[in-house]
């Protein structure tokens, strides 16, 4: 395209262009409570043209699976089904759109698309904003050994970035060819104000490891910048959706089809978006717990296995693995197979963290 609109921040950073990927328009957060096995709930997004325009990020792993589709009116539909029941465990999804259907009262309004027709700025949905980089404490708060021989550490940090805003956390995992894996917090709710904690788990068989950096993005509640010139876009309710004076998220890529193998095998995805720059990306969660009663009915015991999904980056390879955290015998007879989170069709958001002060780890 030889024409179009580019918007630069006052420091020269390009935050809108005709080649920039869409997908940073935040639609809503869905918190799904425990439901009866097999219950299906349907959500319709009237301003998103078809299910293929939705991007769903798992923030909290519960007992729900989902699929997207399109209704007869051409609107995006999300069908969520409960595949298990476990009290007090919710699923949480962040819903974004790469395309939107914009309609303006009295034919007034602005929305922007790229060369592929993807929405880069919407007059309906807020454009995600970078709030700040966070650094984990170097001293672990917990230390243990997993059942399959990994040294297992938990590191945390405290921050107050983005009070009362929905927050999405991306992590710049260090590239490593060692047997070192990571699992970190991805979400902070809009109900959280003041100081809050973020955690990163590390499972490693190496002698040492490097901690990742975290990048906090605010998805809603945008406030006007102090700039006295530039571009601002508001929705019909006069809420700000875009401000050229803010550090809006610049998407490098949205990678789809990521999966966990519950057998413990490593899944490898070679992604060009990880092969250059200093990528930061989302970390989808997965957990499982299995109880198997002793085959001898006279023995009041069960074999318990607890697993968790971990992720690593090795150059341009994004790798997933399910690690066995605990394997023990419990003095109780149960046959249970719980899983929290889906194991396939996961979506990973990638940005260039160098735009936000990221280090090439």
Explain what the structure shows.
The model has no long low-confidence stretch (mean pLDDT 91). 0% of the residues lie in helices and 47% in strands. The protein contains no helices and 28 strands. By secondary structure, the protein is an all-beta fold. A hairpin with an 8-residue loop joins strand 24 and strand 25. It has strands at residues 7-8, 14-16, 25-32, 40-45, 54-60, 64-70, 76-82, 91-97, 112-113, 119-121, 129-135, 142-145, 151-159, 167-172, 180-184, 187-188, 196-204, 213-218, 232-234, 240-243, 251-258, 267-270, 279-281, 287-293, 302-314, 317-330, 336-340, 346-352. The two termini are 35 Å apart. The strands form 9 sheets. Strands 22-26-25-24-27 form a 5-stranded antiparallel β-sheet, with no helix packed on it. A 4-stranded antiparallel β-sheet has the order 11-18-14-16, with no helix packed on it.
Short précis:
By secondary structure, the chain is an all-beta fold. It has strands at 7-8, 14-16, 25-32, 40-45, 54-60, 64-70, 76-82, 91-97, 112-113, 119-121, 129-135, 142-145, 151-159, 167-172, 180-184, 187-188, 196-204, 213-218, 232-234, 240-243, 251-258, 267-270, 279-281, 287-293, 302-314, 317-330, 336-340, 346-352. It contains no helices and 28 strands.
Layout of SSEs?
Elements: E1 7-8, E2 14-16, E3 25-32, E4 40-45, E5 54-60, E6 64-70, E7 76-82, E8 91-97, E9 112-113, E10 119-121, E11 129-135, E12 142-145, E13 151-159, E14 167-172, E15 180-184, E16 187-188, E17 196-204, E18 213-218, E19 232-234, E20 240-243, E21 251-258, E22 267-270, E23 279-281, E24 287-293, E25 302-314, E26 317-330, E27 336-340, E28 346-352
Antiparallel strand pairs: 1-2, 3-8, 4-7, 5-8, 6-7, 9-10, 11-18, 12-13, 13-17, 14-16, 14-18, 15-17, 19-20, 21-28, 22-26, 23-28, 24-25, 24-27, 25-26
